[in-house]
Structure formats: structure tokens, C-alpha cells
Amino acid sequence: MMRRLIWNLLAGLLFASFMPPLLELTTFESVIPFLPLLLTPLLLSHVRRSWFLLGSLLALLVSFYLILIPGEAPWNLFREIAGDINRVINGELPGRPAFAFSIGLISFLIGYLARRTFPNRGFVFGLALGVIGFIAYCDTWTDYSGEQFIIYPIVLALFLLYATEVSERPMASYVRPFSALLIIGATVVAAVQSPVITATWQDSWYDWTDGFESEGTSSSQIQKVGYGNNDEQLGGPFQMDDREVFQVESEGSRYWRVETKDVYTGKGWVLSKSEPEIDSRGFFSHFGDDVKKREERATFELSRELPFVPYNGDNVRLSVDKQRQNLLIDPENQKVSYLDDAERQQNYQIQYTYPLFTEELLQTDEPITLSEMEQDRYLQLPDTLPNRVRDLAEEIVADEDSPWDKAKAIESYFEQENFEYNTEEVAVPEENQDYVDQFLFETKLGYCDNFSTSATVLLRAVGLPARWVKGFTGGESDVIGAAVTSYTVRNKNAHSWVEVYIEGPGWVPLEPTVSFDGAGQYTIDQETNNETEQANPQRDTETDTETATPERPQENLLDEEQTTTAAQTEQQSFPIWPVVGVIVGLVFLYLFRKPLTRTAAILFFRNQLHRPEGFKRMYRFLLRRLDKQGFHYKDGRTLTELAHEVDGYYETYAMRPLTDAYERMVYGGESLSVDKKREYFENIIRRIEG
């Protein structure tokens, strides 16, 4: 009885392990109200059926009370349930009662299955794989991170397997508990103390199949295209990711900003400081007073809640159901985010001012009036920057006079010099190598991070304040009206570009990445015959790569702690597959050791039973296998007594005739036929090694 109670408790705790990730993704706050309905069916799985059913029902009602109406009168529970049923009948989505009932139903079915199958290792494997698989699914495809928690169901599953093994056998030696504790301890130590290799891809089931081999510095761990937040180490290849981030209805294709970075380290970007403040609008003074602007609106429908607000232009205001929302505004990196996670929205509208520059205003040659502190921020370059980068910058702008012409010369330099857009053979700089220097003089291929970072550094090298910008391009369009178009923005539309400061116009976006036309960054007003014609200032391209070309690699769209290229260290060529094959082979042999032993024994003794020595060898083999299962024939029992105990435990009639045949052969007399020996042997060995 005690063994069964321990087994039931371990099974209940393992089953309950699937709740923490589920609760983190719902509005429920604690697992404690769910514990009665989660644990009771398994704890009562060994009692009489009537007590099992009654206990499970009472546990369901207790959990319903604690989940739905804690502290209220108990009879209000039925009113709550009836209200949810009426909502479903009226065509509405089910609420909290339906969710709790579904969890209770699953728990009851698990308990009933345990009642019918105990003790059974198949049940344990199925339960463990289901719980661990669910946690892995939540970790892979949702915001939940199961890196720390997943060790608990693994340890519980190991304990439950051991408890199942003990329950299946009539006796147990001291070797078994020591072996179990050794395996469980080794698993915990390996999980906790092993050196961690940060995964490059965090959200795709196929991540681990790529990037095992590399050559030199041109190949590192493959990343997934998407938006991340840590840009301290740039470089490395990535793969396409078509998952949707948001849909937006706007008055045209727009680049959607998220934030800027100002300090170039030689490897990537960091923010010099951050001082967010609460406000109802994001006013960042991107543009000068003389710049024409127009008010625009955009309606966002997010596939998942984002920790930031994508926007365009200036003076951003966010509304939900026509109610203005307070936001967390960071003027240092022009980032708009929520006050806390609970206020994140998936459907909202923003208003902003969109710039309409003129050629005359852009061609100004006025001296820069940024403060000394701002100039230091946006002209910063590391002391380790190679001189040939500065020399190249001066060479590019040598024939240009105005700041705008210099900026455009740097923007178009990469296309004129036939730099290549490439996502697969992108290098990671060596330890003492500069990221921009490597791109400009060695590889000359890369994606938006390479182009935008290099353009920012070149602009600063010639004295033009510049900053690095991250966000999304416009996405795929679907016209739904004369003035409003719906766009689908995906992970592959994550992008980076550069903004240069021109006295008068202010911060003007540039698109240095080859094959991108920059549509939606800003508009130039061209007056013709007293009518205003709006033209896109960016270069034309042969193909529309905004929907066909992935833009920049990142990790997890929603994880504030993710890195841009997590673990960008150069990989060494290593024959990983033989190691994986050996490990899989060893695991297979361990998991299926009993069926393999059974099959090998049957095949080995099948053709030996016609000889007396072969039959003796077979019978002694059976005694050794039974001894390992706890049937010790040297404990003062006769072989006949042992045979009766074995047949009684396994509910068969096989060991007794084999023992009788063995004794007759030893002491003289008639024996069984070869066919009967084979039949009885195969019968009992299948039970022993089942």
C-alpha cells in the first residue's frame, strides 16, 4: 500500500508539472487552486471505484470553488457555471469554468488510466513525454521560458520509473535504489553544472539541425531572422522565418521604428544611457521646424503581444478603443514601450507626424547646432577603428560639398562598388578584428546589419552625426481602400538602417542596404506647375525585395534579454553525428534491453533444447534471470517451490513443467518434448523480460 501511495503521489506531481507554463500563458495566477483536481484522481487511483469517482468529483468541486469564486458562498459556484454554459449557448467563447473543467477531465482520465494499467512503464513514459513535450512546446512557440523548470518533471519522471520498477517486482536488492539515485543525481548535476552553450535559435523546432559544421570565419551558428534587443555582437548567417508579427493598416508602406543605438564598439551596438519617462505621447523631435509634416494614422493587429510599440515619424500617440494610453518613453533611444507587461496590447491605433522633405531644405549647408553632448554621442567611434576606414570615408565624399550630398554618396557607395546582399556566408569578425573593417575591405557581403553599421561609421568618420536604427520594413501589401492599405509584417521584415543629422531637416533616414529601395522612410515634395508631387527619394531597384528578401537576424521577438547573435563564436568542424549516433544507440540499447535480451535468448536456445546440455544451460539461464528479478532460489527453497512462486506471480503455467523436466533429466526419468520445452521457455522468458 505504501509503495502504491508513493507511486500515486509521484505520478500526480509529474502530471501537475504541465500547469506552471500553462498558467503563465493565461490569466490564472497560481497552481494551488488546481491541485485538488490535479492530484486527487491519481492519489485515489488504487481505491474502490465508487470512492475513486466520488473523490474525483469532490476534488473537482473544491478546485472550481477555489478557482472561480474564492471567498464567496459555495452555491454561487453553480451560478458561475450556469452563466458560462449560457455564454457558450449564445455563441460566445467559453470562460474560466470551461477551462477548469477541461483540466479536471484530463486529470480524471489520467487517474483512470493509471488505475487500469498500474504498474506499467508505458504509462510513465507516455505521461513524462506528454508533460515534457508540452513544456518544450510552450518554450519553443510562446513567451514561456522553460529552461529552469524543465529539470523538475525530468527528475520526477526518473523517480516514477524507479517506483514503477520496484512495484513490478516482489523483491528488490540494494543495487537498484543505489543505481536509481546515481542516475537521478547524475542527471541533476549534468543539468545544473554543465557549461551552457547559448542557443542561437530559440523558437524553431528545426534549429538544431543546422550549423553543425563551418569553415573559417565565414560560417557561425545559424540564426533566425526576427527582432531582438541585444546587438553587442553582430555577424553570422541566418535563415528565413515567415511567421507573422503584426498586420497594420496605414496610408502607405512605412518603415516601423523601434529604437536606435548610439555607441559602436567595433563588434556591434550598445546604448550609452537610458532614462525612460511616462507620457501619453512619444515626442522625439526627429525633424526640424521647417519640415512639412502630415498627420497619419495606423491600426495595428499584433499576432502576439510585443514589449514595444512600432511607430513612424514623430509625436506618437497610442489609443485603444479610442482611449489615449500612457506610455513609457525613452528619449535616449527613441523607444516607445508599455509601463508594464500587463498593459501590452494586441490591437491599437497610433497617430504620428510623417515628414515631407524638400530638395531645397535637404541641400542646406548650415553648421550643425546639436549640443556638444549630442555631437559626442552621434560622432562616437572606437579608438580601435582602423585608419583605412576613416580614409575610405574621406575618399567617398571627396567630390561632394553639402552634408546631404556626402550622406547620399555614402549611402550609394555599396551599390556602386557591387557589394553583395548575402545571408548565408556572412562572416563573424575575429577577436581583434573590427566588424565594419572586415565588411568594407574583406568580405564585401552581408545583410542589413553590415550595411547600416558600416554606413553609420562612415558618416561619423566624415563629421556627420549619425545613429543606427532598428525596426521593420513595410511588409507585404494588400490594398483595401483608396487611401488605406493593409500590410502583413513578418519576422523576415525585421531590419536596420541609419539616420543622419542635417541641420534644418533634422534626422533623415538613409537606406544603404543594396537591393532595398527604402520606400516608406520619408517623402520628398516636388513642386511642379504649382502642384505638389510626392516622390520617394530612394534609389530604384529591379525587384521588390521588401517581400522577397529577409532582412536581419535576431532571436526571440518577445524576449528582452535575447541577443542579436547569441553565441556568435566561431564553430570548429566537429564530427557531431557519430557522437549523436553512439548516444542514440546506447539510449536505445538501454531502453529496449529487456526485449533485446528476450529475443536473443529465444534465438540462442531455440536449437539447443534437443540436447540435455542445452536444456540445462537454458534452465540455469532462467534461474539467473529470475534471481535478478528478486526470485532467489538459494534462500532455502526448493526448485519446485520457486517454480510455484514464479508461476503464481506471473500468472502462468510454464516454470513448473520446466522445473519438473529439469529434475527428471537430472535424476532420471521421462522428460518433455523439445516443442514443449521451447513453448514453456518462451512463455516464461517473455514474462520475465516483459
TrEMBL record:
InterPro entries associated with the record: Bact_TGase-like, Papain-like_cys_pep_sf, TgpA-like_C, TgpA_N, Transglutaminase-like
Q: Where is this region: Disordered?
A: 527-569
Q: Which superkingdom does the taxonomy of this entry point to? A: Bacteria
Give residue ranges for domain Transglutaminase-like: 440-514
Q: Determine if Membrane is one of this entry's keywords.
A: yes
Compositional bias annotation for Polar residues: 527-538
Positions of transmembrane segments: 26-44, 51-69, 97-114, 121-137, 149-166, 178-197, 574-592
Record keywords: Membrane, Transmembrane, Transmembrane helix
Q: Does the keyword Transmembrane helix apply?
A: yes
Note the Pfam families from the entry.
DUF4129 (PF13559), TgpA_N (PF11992), Transglut_core (PF01841)
Q: Which PANTHER family match?
A: PROTEIN-GLUTAMINE GAMMA-GLUTAMYLTRANSFERASE
Instruction: State the protein's name.
Output: Transglutaminase domain protein
